[in-house]
Amino acid sequence: MTPDVNYGLDTILNLWVFVFIGVLIWMYRKKDHGDED
Amino acid sequence: MFRNPLLILSLMLTGGIALWGIVDTASLAAFSSRIVGIMFTSRGWFIMLSASIFLFASIWLALSRYGNIRLGKDDDEPEFSTVSWLTMLFAAGMGVGLLFFGTAEPLTHFDGIRAYMTDSRAAEAALFVTNFHWGLHAWAIYAITGLVMAYFSFRKGCPNLISAPLHHVFGRNGWTRLVGGFSDLMAITAIAIGLGGSIAMGVFQVQSGVESLFSLKNSGTVLTLVIFAHVCVAYIVPLTVDLSRGMALLSNTAMTIAGALMVFVVITGPTYYIMSAIVGALGDYLSQVIPHGFQTYTYFDENVGNWFQAWTLTYMVWWLAWSPFVGVFIARISKGRTIREYLLGVILVPTLFSVFWFGVFGSLGFFGALKTDSIVLEVVRNNINSTTFFVLDHLPLKFLTTAATVAAAFLFVVTSVVSAAFVLSMFSSGGDLNPTTRSKLIWGALLGALGLVMILSDSIDAVKSIIALGAMPFVFIVLLILVCLLKELKKEVSP
Question: What is the pTM of this model?
Answer without folding.
Answer: 0.91
